[in-house]
Structures are given as C-alpha cells and as structure tokens.
Amino acid sequence: MPTIERGSSSEDFLKSLGFPTLAVHDTFTHFDFTTPGRRVLLIGPMGSGKTEFAARVWRDAAVAQTKSEAVKQLTSTGEVDRRNIFFIRSEIDGERFTDYPEDALAYRNGYIRCGENIARIRDSFGLERVIADNPEVGTYIIDEASFFDERLAYVVRNASLEKGCMFIFPTLVLNFRREFFNNTARLMLDIATDVIPLTAYCEHPDCMDAAFYTYRYYSVEGQECPALFFDPLIVVGGDQIKQSAAEPNYAARCDRHHYLPGKEYTFFTLKPLGEAASRGDAAALVREVEALHGDLKRSQLYQNLLSRYGDDEKGEMYMASLLPGLIAEKALCYLFCEQNLISEALLTKLVFDLELDIPYMEKTLAANRRPVTFDQPFLL
C-alpha cells in the first residue's frame, strides 16, 4: 500500500526551543532523493499546486546536485542519479501554457526551464524511448499521467524496480465527474509507493472550504453553466478563463458547490438508447439526438432536468447546463468513445444527417483516443 507523506519531528524541535503547547503542523520538507524506486503520486483538484510542487522538487534537485561525491553515492543506483530530473508532458496537452518557453516546466503563475531534460510523448512507448535515451536520469516527473495509456503504469514500475529510478506524477486521479479518471489512474494508485494529497480553496465566491474535486463549467454570456455528466472525458485547452460555449473552464470545488447535472439521464436514458442501437435498433437514439440538436425542449434530457431540478433552489444553475450547446455532439462522443455502443458508421451518418459540428467532433474524438475523420457519410 502507498504511504501518505507526513512530517514527524517539527513538534519535538519546537518544544526543545521552549515553545508552549500549541497546534504544530507538518513541515514542508525538502524532497528525498536517497530512496530508490519511489513512485510518488501528487493528487488534488485543478489549481491545487501539483505541478508547482513538482517544480519545487526540481529546485531541490538543483541544490542537491551541488553536494559532494558522498551525497551522489546516496542518491544513485548504478548509473542513474535521482538528482538528475527529466520532465515529461503529453503531446495532447500542447495548448496549455502557450505563453511560456518550449522547455518550461510551467505551472500557474510561474515556470522553470528544463533545458534538454524535457519531452512531449504520446504514449508509454514514448516513455520507454526517453528512459533508454537518458541512462543517467534518475527521476522522471510525468505531468498528468492519466492522459496516457494504462501500460504506462507497468513501464514505470519495471524501471523503478530494475534501475532504481524515481517517478513523480502530478496528476488528476478523479475526473470532473468525481469518478476515477480512467484505468490508468486506477493502476497508478496500484503501483504507487507514496501519495501526497493537495487541496485548494473552493473557488466558489461564497466559500472557503477545502476543495477536493475538479469542477468543469462553461461560461455563456457571463453565466456559469455546469458541464453535463456525459461531457467528453478529455477536453484539452489553456488555463485562461474562456467565454465559450465549446471550451470549458475548470475550478476547484467542494462537495456543496460541485454541480453535476445529467448523471441520472446518462444511465437511465442515454446509455440504454446506445445499447439498443448496438443491437441494431437505433431509431429511439436517432430521435433523441435529433431533439438534442434541433429542439432541445422536446428531448428526454430537458424533461429529466426539468422534473429533477425545476423546483430546486439551485434549479437555475442545473438548467443552465443546457446553454452551451453541442449537446448532441457530446452525447455521441460519450456513446462512441467511452461506452463503445455505437458504430463509426452510425456516428458518421448522424454527423452528416444532422449537420453536426465536424471540427468539434474530430478534435474531441482525437483527444479521447478514438480519432475519426469525417470525409463522407457511410451508407447504412
């Protein structure tokens, strides 16, 4: 089982200086490069400082590299030295931090330049190539590891056991639905040796509670519009606040202020319609997608939200989830990418028959690892 990193000696130290009895919190210690094979998860919502923590590890390594040969013996296993750090980011994450240098380990409000010790990779095979090409590197910081294929977890585990490398993962474990991000996230927890949880203030303007969840919302004419449960799992973009019906924003939120409309509809209506389509009966799904695209109030989604939240004090917030649009596109992406319930042929036919937003669909499907190029409709 992974351990939760905590300080241990602060209270005794302060007592020795004559401090009175008071609440003593854990120290913010310098990073340990002496223990081989660690696999450290930095978990928390968007904005909790995961990548900034990783940048602090990089700065600690720079200090540790100034130490003597005796220290090198402590931080090395064979030819790898854990004070040598390499930063890795996903290729699909290229739209974030576009204002920073190409070699930047960038976080909100700052960055550290990594020089040649930085790479963007597409998958776990790319990680294997980076490890093979850098035999003296002993610590790898892999940003947003959940974006990668699940094989990554075993590549990491093998390299840590065989070479003594350390891996640090500033990553989301939960997605905006408050579920495990994906199978990769589950496997990262399975192989982790250490977990460092980070929180943030809830970003709701009326709240100061600790936030554990990442909340996704759209901003339409200044109004906050929560993402529907079946919104695409991966939507990559910059960190700037966007006034857009197509590009979401993210915030750290507590339980009370994390709104997630459409979950009941997804499992009571949308998924069963997809299952029927997978058995060859797509008529009901086609009718619902047509309504989602062209006559929203006629859709089962609208009726579900109205009956569930219409009289709720937060009903206006939940109903605002319908304002951003592209709902038919999102529903089809969910059924095709995540549930694998509709065929590419049916997907393509609906896209052309209903004149759905092809650039949005292609970008979203590619980001969620089910790329489709809509050149011409299939004939069913």
Automatic annotation (TrEMBL):
Q: Which GO terms describe its biological process?
A: DNA biosynthetic process
For this protein, what is the EC number? 2.7.1.21
What keyword terms does UniProt attach to this protein?
ATP-binding, DNA synthesis, Kinase, Nucleotide-binding, Transferase
For this UniProt entry, the molecular function terms from Gene Ontology, in alphabetical order, are:
ATP binding; thymidine kinase activity
Q: Name one Pfam family in it.
A: TK
Family listed: Belongs to the thymidine kinase family.
> Could you tell me what this protein is called?
thymidine kinase
The lineage is: Bacteria, Pseudomonadati, Spirochaetota, Spirochaetia, Spirochaetales
